[in-house]
Write a structure and sequence with these properties.
This protein is an alpha/beta fold. The protein has a domain of about 280 residues: Amidase signature (AS) enzymes (Alpha-Beta Complex). Helix content is about 40%, strand content about 10%. It has 17 helices and 11 strands. It has an 11-stranded mixed beta sheet, sandwiched between helices. Helix 2 packs antiparallel against helix 3. It is globular, with a radius of gyration of 22 Å. The mean pLDDT is about 95. The structure holds glutamine (GLN). Glutamine binds next to loops.
């Protein structure tokens, strides 16, 4: 049995019966990473010293016979946007090339308290800006289903590492789709919870009114386990509230098909726009029929203002990014420009300029310039304020839709994984990758993507995964994950499809 192929709940079952140790599992992942990651390139760095230390500690807890958390002894990868004390955190940017964090994010702190095993940091688009992981300053991560294609982004390293069984699960972030879109492209589950459900303390900020941590997992029960471990109030993050944190794994593992009977499922026409690949559209319509066969009631809902989502997002996200990224000035932390003599004797202004010129990549610069313009004197009302008003309309659209529907379904991404390089010279077409995910962040809602099937790979006769997005009202992650659990049971994606690491 290959331990790296098992889900978190299956590994937990083995630990409980004493049939495997965390050390065995960690060793299995170490070998798998050594064999496969040179093809996929999902990790920015691995940390096996730390991993085996964590595993030893976890095995002690497991052997002590006490009740232990479901994540105890489970090897995970972490998007390199989460700060971890004493560990390098680059955010895939040269400006943080040698940055070692002085403190720990709340997410990784809670993971530690749960006894997880830290395998290493995985790749992303620089500062989480992108949809393909090609904007990483370090290397390109490949899609495990076709090594010439992107894994999606910005949590592409996370999604690829879970898809290729290089980690049992991964934590990422989702500002406009960065957990769900790569999950869809790599054939794994990606959950973006309600804004404020998971603390963002110690996560490098991109767009503060949109950023949310999320999980990438092999199935929705694993996603429930990962969510429960980190969700909840944190006095260090004012966007968290004293929400009632449900026992997601218990609810999800108890979910039965009767949940779908009478469930009102909305399919908005706005999720079937011009750029949608017809094969993906037909997969989603098959899913609608599956829901109907299981006894759901399909209802008409409309989200008329979501057609402005991309425009709204790119004003809000770039404005907030320009402000959040001001701190990388070459003075306080991160890269500082040095001239050929190893010092710098120009003006302060030159130092800022040169440090930022070298330290930031093209896409990050583009966004800083856009956002700075949008916030500049005289333009604030025309851009940021107007975008905030449109955002209110989008929130209202969803509120109205959820008066009629219990969940909303649609495609996660308009296309399957695209070719590396295909969209790099056309930022607008790259931005359209998130056309179905962005409105959910604008409305602070929870949503997930589950793999629902495959389409033919036009390159070489293989196949590429397709994700379906499910959206539900604020703080109903239990409903979302339970519905996903039932659908994945009907489809059996994990038993049918595995990445083949071809076309390298
Ligand atoms: N792809 C979107 C962007 O480039 C979303 C990124 C994200 O969710 N972090 O901004």
């Amino acid at each position: 049995m290959n331990l790296f192929n098992l889900t978190i709940h299956e590994l937990n079952g083995l630990f409980k019966k004493g049939e495997a140790t965390s050390r065995d599992v960690t060793e299995s992942f170490r070998k798998r990473i050594e064999e496969i990651d040179p093809k996929v390139n999902s990790f920015l760095y691995t940390d096996f010293d730390e991993a085996f230390k964590n595993a030893e500690e976890a095995d002690r807890i497991i052997k002590s016979g006490k009740n232990f958390p479901e994540l105890c002894g489970i090897p995970l990868s972490i998007k390199d946007i989460f700060l971890m004390k004493g560990k390098k955190t680059t955010c895939a940017s040269k400006i943080l090339e040698n940055f070692v964090s002085p403190y720990e994010s709340t997410v990784t702190k809670r993971l530690r308290e749960n006894g997880y095993v830290f395998l290493g940091k995985v790749n992303l688009d620089e500062f989480a800006m992108g949809s393909s992981t090609e904007n990483s300053a370090y290397h390109i991560t490949k899609n495990p289903y076709d090594l010439k294609r992107v894994p999606g982004g910005s949590s592409g390293g996370s999604a690829a590492s879970v898809s290729a069984a290089l980690s049992a699960g991964s934590f990422g972030t989702d500002t406009g789709g960065s957990v769900r879109q790569p999950a869809a492209l790599c054939g794994v589950v990606g959950l973006k919870p309600t804004y404020g459900l998971i603390s963002r303390y110690g996560i490098i900020a991109f767009s503060s009114s949109l950023d949310q941590a999320g999980v990438l997992a092999k199935d929705s029960l694993d996603a429930a386990i990962m969510l429960k471990a980190v969700a909840g109030f944190d006095e260090k993050d004012q966007t968290t509230r004293k929400f009632d944190i449900k026992d997601y794994p218990a609810i999800v593992s108890g979910a039965s098909k009767s949940l779908i009977k009478g469930l009102k499922v909305g399919i908005p026409s706005e999720f079937f726009t011009e750029g949608l690949d017809p094969k993906i559209a037909s997969k989603i319509l098959e899913m609608r029929d599956l829901f109907r066969d299981l006894g759901a009631e399909i209802v008409d809902v409309s989200l008329p203002d979501t057609k402005y989502s991309i425009a709204t997002y790119y004003v809000i996200a770039t404005s907030e990014a320009s402000s959040n990224l001001e701190r990388y000035d070459g003075i306080r932390f991160g890269y500082r420009f040095k001239d050929e003599n190893g010092g710098f004797f120009g003006t302060l202004d030159d130092l800022y300029r040169k440090s930022r010129e070298y330290g930031f990549g093209k896409e990050v610069k583009r966004r800083i310039i856009l956002g700075t313009f949008a916030l500049s004197a005289g333009y604030y009302d025309a851009y940021y304020k107007k975008a905030s008003l449109v955002r209110k309309l989008i929130i209202k659209n969803y509120r109205d839709a959820f008066k009629k529907a219990d969940i909303i379904i649609g495609p996660t991404s308009p296309t399957p994984a695209f070719l590396i390089g295909e969209k790099m010279d056309d930022p607008l077409s790259m931005y359209l990758s998130d056309i179905y995910t962005i409105s959910i962040n604008l409305a602070y809602l929870p949503a997930l993507s589950i793999p629902v099937g495959v389409v033919d790979n036009p390159s070489w006769g293989g196949f590429l995964p397709v994700g379906m997005q499910i959206v539900s009202p604020w703080l109903t992650e239990d409903r979302l994950l339970s519905v996903a659990r039932i659908i994945e049971g009907e489809i059996g994606f994990r038993d049918k499809y595995k990445p083949e690491f071809k076309n390298g």
